[in-house]
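re: that chain from earlier
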Amino acid sequence: MRKIQVIPATQEFTSNSQSPSLNRKRRVAGYARVSTDSDEQFTSYAAQVDYYTNMIKARADWEFVGIYTDEGISGTSTARREGFRNMVADALDGKIDLIVTKSVSRFARNTVDSLTTIRQLKEKKVEVFFEKESIWTFDSKGELLITIMSSIAQEESRSISENTKWGIRKRFADGKLLLPYSSFLGYEKGPDGTIVINEEEAKLVRYIYALFLQGKAVGSIVRILNKEGHLTPTGKKKWYHRVIESILTNEKYKGDALLQKKFTPDFLSKRLVKNKGEVSQYYVKESHDAIIEPDVFDLVQRELAYRKKYMLGACPDHPFSGRIRCGDCQNNYGRKIWHSNDKYRKELWQCNGKYKVKDKICTTPTITDKEVKELFLKALNMLLANKDELFKEFNLIKNQALDNIPLKQKIDELQQERVVLAKKLEGITRRNASVAPDQDIITSEFDKIQQRYIKVTEQVSALETRIKDQKHRALKTERFLKSLSDQESMIAEYSDELWFSLLDHMTIYAKDDIRFTFKNGGEIRVGK
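^ sequence. v structure.
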């Protein structure tokens, strides 16, 4: 027969932590958190810290370790809560025996985070007491109750998040715009809550746009602003590429606003992601006063696209970079240095694709900085000789650009046809769902209408692009002639300002065939 011997326990165990079984005092820490920075919440935060400090110190069997805190931090994730993470780390290192906090929702509104942390602490014999729910995690029912309460807290967070999102999207749908004024250059909040221009800051915005249209690369603009000591939108002294790029591409500077560029897909992580069509966006025209004229803003966008296409990988700080093209293979010319370490050192420009194709070497010649400048002046003076003709040409171009009424009428006709076609497609879909027609016939009918709908949409897009191109050409020519009108006589000296303001690009075909294409679209051929 088996014999069973009882080995008595050497320590008393109790799940009621208010009657500790340890002979020594329990080392106790408090945890306090509020999720916003408002004055009301700050009072709550201060009250929590004061309350738990006094509560722990009042217990003769407890030793006060300290209060760990997080201010203005959401409880949906523990990842960004430094005070919480420090407390858990100290507890796992054996510095804390008991953590006291107000409620499960103060600890974490994420069920997974809450349970994971509590289990880690239990493994190290660290208990947590939730005062509001009167839950001790060493209690046998503790984990079940925490699971329930954490789930409720998580659902509450989800509900709050959804209500907040609805409010934001409703405001967007109504065209209401809010700006982060503390980090947005050029605008400030007016006395009635409207967006008003801060003229002092607006001068800097216009200066940045002017530098860019003068041909300065983004990196050059960064260096200029840093050297001159201008402050960034957030009041810092150092500028970066991304800040300049953001200013140059933000439609709010032309008085429009694209709303909901980013959104939060997960209420637990609260991570903002770029909106790529997952949720609706709203474009509000003329929502506030413009700092940059819309035409000038559009011109900058086209210049950005030009540089991205033709200057990728080029040296952005050199005025010729991305502006000299090979007439043979259409590649850009790049800056080369021959004999860099001896007395025969020579700097020149050569086709970047000259030796890319083994059996087809470009025949276009190299060219020096001096030759580029001399040829540009030659072409420019030829242009100045026909200045009167250029002004006549501009008036014709401008009239054509402004006379887009026939194009707009055609767009209206196509839009009306598109509405009719959409209704027909919707009718076919509804009929197919309610009855059982011959699928071959209905598919053929649907495809025919859909193809027409696509074609009409493409025609509308092409006409809209044509109107934009006409306006763009007129604007470029107007700016070109404005720069040209300041030149009253023949030009004897090259300047980067003339190069950037008048020239679009130069193309080298041969020594005696070098063509300069100016920003009015005109082309002048010269030779070495």
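Residues 11-22, 36-42, 165-169 have pLDDT under 50 and may be disordered.
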